Structures are given as C-alpha cells and as structure tokens.
Structure prediction request, 331 residues.
Amino acid sequence: MTKITAAISAVGKYVPDYILTNKELETYVDTNDEWITTRTGIKERRILKGEGLGTSYMAIKASEDLIKKAHLDPKEIDLVIVATATPDLQVASTAAYVASEIGATNAFGYDLQAACSSFLYGMSTAASYIASGRYKKVLLIGADKMSSIIDYSDRATCIIFGDGAGAALFEPNLENLGLQDEYLRSDGVGRDFLRIEAGGSMMPTTLETVQQKKHFVYQEGKTVFKYAVSNMADVAEKMLTRNNLSESDIQWLVAHQANKRIIEATANRVGVAAEKVMMNIHRYGNTTSATLPLLLADYEKELKKGDNLIFAAFGGGFTWGAAYLKWAYNS
Ligand code: UT7
Prediction:
C-alpha cells in the first residue's frame, strides 16, 4: 500500500497595514534604530489597529488569501487549527470562530498554544491527522496579535514583537512529499524566563495585577537567547544527520524569526549558506506563531516541488523543535 504523507498544498498570509518603525519606538523608550538593527535585525513590524479586532481578524484574512489562491471550497476543510499565544478570548476557541467565518462549516476547530513553537507543533498535529487517513484537508493557521500583550514602555520586549498571520493547508500526498521527520522538545525550566505572569489560573486578574503590569510579556532576553541559540541549532542539525542530509541537499532553512543572530547561528551550525535562509524579520519582527507561515507565503514563488526544507523554532515554555519537509508544488 502507498504510504500517505502530509504535504502543504497552499499557503496564505495577512499582515496589518500599520508599520511601527524603529524610529517611532525611539519616541516611546530609550532605544535607537542602530541598537535594534544590530542586536535583532528588525527594522519594522506591523501592528493591528482598530477597536475590537483580535487575532481571529488576521487569521481569517490569511485563510481567505489561501482559499482564494488555491480556488478552495471552504466546505471541504475538515479541521481548522489556530496556533496562537493570543487567542481572541479566554476559553472560547478562536479556531471555531475562524472556521465559521471563512465558511468551513463542515470543519471542527481548536487552538494550539506552544508560544513561538505553536506553528511547528501544529505542523506535526496537522500532518498526523492527514496521515491517519481520516482527514483530507487540515487548515493550520499561525496568528498572533502580540501588540495586545506588549508593554510599550518596556524596551526589552516592545522592540521585538509584531502582529501577523499565515496559513497552510495540509493534504494527503502519494508521492512521498510533505512532512518527512520531526523532533519536538520542551523543558519547563523556561517558564521563569519568558512568560505572562497574571491572568491565568495561577494568578487570576486583580486590580493589583493590572497595576503591576503583570499581564504583559516578560522576557529575560539574554537567558532565552542562550537557550534558543544552542537548542535550535541542535535540533536542526539532528534533522540533517538523522535523515542523512548534507548541506547541499537542503534548499531552504525556515527558522523562527526571533532574532537575526539566532537564525544565523542555526544556519552556521548546519552549514546552510545565507541565500538559503528565509528571512523577513526586518519587516515583521517576531510575530510568534505566525513567523513560519509568513516565511512560506513570502518565499512561495521561489519554492519548487521536491525542495528540502528544514524548519526550526524556539519559544516560551521552553518549547522547541525542528522538522524536515519536502515541498509539494510549484506556484
Ligand atoms: O521568540 C521566542 C524566543 N525569544 C527569543 O529568542 C529572544 C531571545 N533574546 C534576544 O533576542 C535578545 O536577548 C534581545 C534582543 C532581547 C536583547 O539583546 P541582547 O544582546 O541580549 O541585549 P541585553 O539584554 O544583553 O542588553 C545589552 C545592553 C544592556 O545595556 P548594558 O547593561 O550593557 O549597559 C541593555 O540595558 O543593551 C541594553 N538594552 C537596550 N539598549 C537599547 C536592552 N534593550 C535595549 C534597547 N535599546 N531596546
């Protein structure tokens, strides 16, 4: 019997119109364009403005972009997964709302939260549903409205994050294209270094937690940086060695866009040349769950059927991992 693999058959994206530049950030906190550019590689990020607009707004737009490009009937979608750290609401599934709004009326939907590794973990989840043979079309969306949880008076975090969404459709493939391998890890030691302290079950919201700004992202950047550099490089290298791949077999490195220096360190470890490293951090900053699908959408035209892609991500928790995927179409 032919093995069913799960391939990405279409991608879509959405980023908000408003551009928050390094120059504008200089007016909020003690920072400067030169510091931000050399330490992170970020020049600007997108911010979702507008009363009442949450992560679902961007997830819907990214899905509609995919649906239009792929000439897809949304009624054929079996499952919608929204990978996000910033759901519209506590408790109510953002994905359920997104599925209804895009017309995926035959789908069920739920959210997946693993901080900056959400989309990578979601790839594993989506691919497993497809490989089971029970589902034919799984829409995986990575979307985050990071501006809703960032303190714009904290220079350690406000320079990094941005808003955006990307979507990928997973379908069965009989040519052995799509997801080939994955190595996913986590370590709870990380939660002291990158987190939102209040608003969860451990520390419910009170007047004090709001006044103490405990509902914003806190990050001990240097520590997270050290873990990210070594762990992302380790897992990316593992994907190559475990699959007998050498640098020349790899067409693209698709790495979480948290810091240009972390991406470059990962590329150096696996020996991938700069022109094979997807990069859009300078335009969007760190969009958390959206970085990987935004890269796929931005580079879609350059991707060729059969290309070998190595994915790598690292995020809060800590959560991290890598995946090896064969691209399935020419656009
Ligand atoms: O996506 C999830 C995972 N997250 C990550 O992977 C992020 C990992 N961390 C990082 O990317 C980096 O640690 C940051 C970009 C957050 C910070 O860069 P860094 O090179 O680690 O800087 P630092 O925190 O060690 O600070 C260096 C200096 C300090 O000054 P002194 O003590 O040397 O005088 C900071 O006070 O830079 C100062 N500084 C700034 N200066 C201007 C910190 N933030 C800023 C700023 N503008 N925004």
Observations:
- The two ends are 29 Å apart (CA to CA).
